[in-house]
Structures are given as structure tokens and as C-alpha cells.
Amino acid sequence: MIVLGIETSCDETAAAVVTDRREILGDVVLSQLTDHRPYGGVVPEIAARAHLDHLDGLIRRAMDEAGLGFDQLDGVAATGGPGLIGGVIVGVMTAKAIAAVRGLPFIAVNHLEGHALTARLTDPAPEGLSFPYLLLLVSGGHCQILAVEGVGRYRRLGTTIDDAVGEAFDKAAKLMGLGYPGGPLLERAAEGGDASRFDLPRPMKGRPGCDFSFSGLKTAVRNRLSELPPGPFDPIDIRDLAASFQAAVGDVMVDRCSRAMAQFRAEHPTGDTLVVAGGVAANKYLRARLTALADKQGFRFQAPPLRLCTDNAVMIAWAGLERLRLGDTDGLDFAPRPRWPLDPTARKPDGKGAKA
Ligand code: KG4
Ligand code: ZN
């Protein structure tokens, strides 16, 4: 079984081809970083236009890499949401057109489901990763802990009540004058820093449940910066503040994840794997903290290779394939969804309904 996947929900335009033998035959990603950098963030209108300009060429390249024609595909999958709606429409319409012309099944994939199932494609064990497992999804747009119980069966144990963790990195880095996107720049700035120098809060640490909050941490960074001497920041101050910030995020993650692990274990005694996905999973310090936590709790730690942690189309093709083999496909009347919670029963911490 071979599936073409398309991802256009944020600022990466991507196409990929995967098989049910866990092979990646084609995989191309075009980042729009340089288009958005002057604005210090993703501009939805620019993103949608860039997807439109590049998607057909990228699909051609992915198919060429795979050495396949469209008639050799078994299905076409595209991110159907959640995400920036202009971009999602471009990807969904393109996938539908290919499916309609070639008479192929179309699968609208939830972007979060793509992140959630990638570990089943990349797990090094010969038989792959079986359900259930615990997933920490940490990116610029998402910050959730999920029990992944099967294809289409995701139970949210925790989510952020304000900013996603990648967003917190980006905002803190911006305040420190480090540039965009802030995560990798802040990680580099923190190297060799004194993580105990600045006193920063650990929001939600020790609280019941597994939810996150990061806006207070960002405010604390702003306050610490305002206490520094006027004029350009001293690089040593920034180094120590970045290290202190990372340590605070690490403490919060370890606290929240260890609670989620206990809850997951109580419900799923056979589940033994913690999967980390999303762009923030690139952070070496956080990876090390989570690996140590997993070791301590008797969990196996699994993080997909970096290029499959950040947004890509391999994860969409794979999630599409997992759905296709269960016969779970979508009609050509599928409407793109700007919001699409993975766990429809999950409530926002304020009780006002689900947040994607
Ligand atoms: O998954 P992703 O590529 O896009 C989505 O948000 O869906 O994640 C991007 C986010 C950005 O907020 C970026 O700053 C953060 O991941 N990030 C990092 C690191 N690399 C990327 N955060 C902390 N440390 C890093 N090394
Ligand atoms: Zn993503």
C-alpha cells in the first residue's frame, strides 16, 4: 500500500510518499522561514500564497524521488486541520483534485494525529511501536500530553491553558533580542549559562492534573530583563537568563510528564513508551531531562528523528495510510477545519469546550 501525503497547515509546504512496510519513498519539505522572518512570526496570507506557489512542484519532486506515477498510489492524504485555514485549503483542494482525477481514496488527516502516529513509522523495533503509548506533543502551536490508544483513539491528559511551549521559547527569545524562531536560538544562547542565577517561576508545578501554563514564565523573563542595567544587554546576562528559562521549562515538563506517566500506567499497565514529538523535541536539554525521567519511571523514551519531529508530510502520509488500511477515508465534500481537537471529549481547563 502506498500513500501520498501533503502538509500545508503552517509555514512548511511538504509532500511525501510512504508505504505500509514503513518505507519513506519520497520526502520533500520547503520551509517559508525567510518569507516570515522580517515579520517575527508566521503571516497567514503570505503562508497561503507560498503554499499555492510551491505545492505542485513539491508533489512532483516527492513522486520523482519515489520513482512512481500517480496510478501506482493507493490513496492521497492531506492535512485537513487544525491550522491556518488558507494553507489547509490549498493542501486539501490539491489532494482532492489528484484523488478525483485518479479515482483514488482521499484521507483528511488531523495534523496532530500525524504527529501522534509518526513514532509507529520510525520506532526502531522490528515490529514497530504498538498501542497504547504516551505522547508529549510540544511545538509552536501545541502543548499536550495524550494517551494514544489506537488509530483515532486519543485521550488528552493535559494541555496548555495559555501559550504552547514553543511559543514561550519564541516569545522569551524575542524579549532577549535573540531573533526568530526563538527556540533553537535560545537553546544556543543558554550554552554554558548559570541556570540558577535568575529566579523564575515553575507554573503549574505540583498542581493536580497534567495541564501546562507558560504565560507567567514569559512575564517573569520580561521583569528580570527590566531589572538589568539600561543599554544593550550583556551577553553573559542573556546566557544566564536563557539557561534559567530552559531549566524552568524542564522542571515543569518533568513534573507534568511524571504525573501523566502515573495516570497512564494506572490505566494501561502494559504501556511502557513515552514518545516526544513536535519542534521543541529538538531541544537537547529538554530531551535529556525527559530521557532521565523515562529511565527513572521504567518507560522507554522514543523521539522520532528531528526532521520528522518538526512539520513534514511523511507524518501525514503515514497517518493517512493507517486510516486507509482501516477503510476510514473521507468524501470529497470534506471541509477544511481551522480547529480540530484530537480528543473531542476533552474540555479546555476552563471548562468552555475543546481547543485544537
Ligand atoms: O513542530 P514545529 O516545527 O511547528 C509547529 O509549531 O507546529 O515547531 C516549531 C516550534 C517553534 O516554536 C520553535 O521555536 C520550537 O519549535 N523549537 C525549539 C527548538 N527547535 C524548535 N524550541 C526549543 N528548543 C529548540 N531547539
Ligand atoms: Zn506540527
UniProtKB/TrEMBL annotation:
Biased composition (Basic and acidic residues): 345-356
CDD domains: ASKHA_NBD_TsaD_bac
Annotated region (Disordered), positions in chain: 335-356
Residue positions binding substrate: 137-141, 170, 183, 187, 283
Key words of the record: Acyltransferase, Cytoplasm, Iron, Kinase, Metal-binding, Transferase, tRNA processing
Gene3D superfamilies: 3.30.420.40
Pfam family, one: TsaD
Cofactor(s) needed: Fe(2+)
Major localization class: cytoplasm
Binding site for Fe cation: 111, 115, 311
Record GO terms (molecular function): iron ion binding; kinase activity; tRNA N(6)-L-threonylcarbamoyladenine synthase activity
Secretion signal, residue range per the UniProt entry: none
GO cellular component term of the entry, any: cytoplasm
Source superkingdom: Bacteria
GO BP of this protein: tRNA threonylcarbamoyladenosine modification
Top-level class of the enzyme under EC nomenclature: transferase
InterPro entries per the UniProt record, alphabetical: ATPase_NBD, Gcp-like_dom, KAE1/TsaD, TsaD
Domain Gcp-like: 23-318
Entry EC number(s): 2.3.1.234
Cofactor binding, note field: Binds 1 Fe(2+) ion per subunit.
Compartments where located: Cytoplasm
PANTHER family registered for this protein in UniProt: TRNA N6-ADENOSINE THREONYLCARBAMOYLTRANSFERASE (PTHR11735), TRNA N6-ADENOSINE THREONYLCARBAMOYLTRANSFERASE, MITOCHONDRIAL (PTHR11735:SF6)
Function: Required for the formation of a threonylcarbamoyl group on adenosine at position 37 (t(6)A37) in tRNAs that read codons beginning with adenine. Is involved in the transfer of the threonylcarbamoyl moiety of threonylcarbamoyl-AMP (TC-AMP) to the N6 group of A37, together with TsaE and TsaB. TsaD likely plays a direct catalytic role in this reaction.
Similarity remark: Belongs to the KAE1 / TsaD family.
Protein name (database record): tRNA N6-adenosine threonylcarbamoyltransferase
Classification lineage: Bacteria, Pseudomonadati, Pseudomonadota, Alphaproteobacteria, Rhodospirillales
